[in-house]
Amino acid sequence: xxNKENNSTIKLVIGVIAVIxxxxxxxxxxxxxxxxxxxxxxTHAVFSDEQTKAxxxxxxxxxxxxxxxxMKAINDGMQMQQEKSxxxxxxxxxxxxxxxxKNAIVWGNAxxxxxxxxxxxxxxxxxxxxxRTAIETVExxxxxxxxxxxxxxxxxxxxAVSKVMLASATQSADKTKTLMRKFVDKVNDLxxxxxxxxxxxxxxxxxxxxxxxxxxxxxxxxxxxxxxxxKLKIPGVPTVFIQNxxxxxxxxxxxxxxxxxxLVKRIKAGExxxxxxxxxxxxxxxxxxxxxxxxKETPKAEEAKKEVSKPAETKKDSKKESASKKKxxxxxxx
Length: 334
Prior knowledge:
This protein is an alpha+beta fold. Helix content is about 60%, strand content about 10%. α1 crosses α4 (about 65-95).
């Protein structure tokens, strides 16, 4: 049924093109008698008013009578373009798979049956949700691993927190997991002092962390990750890829823990997990996943600040300012 509809759409579009072609033929034929008298560029520059009007009327009439078909043709064309872009992204991501691992943080068993690769910015709220799911998943199963490519694409604070993740991971990926579990729940009330306390609670050596945080090695990792994301033209974060049974990567929306565990069973059974299974629970949602888009100018890693943002302190200052204004207004009334 769908093929028949597509065929009718194609026939209609071809028909419109044919009508325009006939109109062009009429134009050039009618213009041929005068072509000997006028310069060729003048003759073929424009249609006459009558010819332009006739073509417009034909196109408008067909469009009005077949509006639904025209809209379907437009939507189909857009979908085809999106699918092509997705295939290109998956192909390029597969080619860069080894580059992902180079500067990434791996949570879970590196040789797990199900390998998930994800581009994240640690200041992205949707990435926070993904990290919660990733932590829950690896704690439930040793058959899933998450390779996190940390790249600061949302601003200076992202650079600072990306350094925190990478620097803590030089000591232990598991301890970084513990740190980020705490971080994502307290990100809106963090100061540098509170962040260091969290690092200490996670069992990370603070002195070594501070040394690593500003090291050239961490700077280089950040810069290389940003270059990788720009090279792949990643549309936003989190961007998730799952490794199929043949080693290729395919794009997928962020899933829930149960969905990842079902994919484990399928890939162990030798299935092509890029295609929907009998159990539709792990299928990608019909709606596109929410992502954070990069800022217009990707910040360079060397722009990192030593302090994480201090929204909590800002809130306190705002309250004090409001209280002062209220007192001033009360004095005026009195």
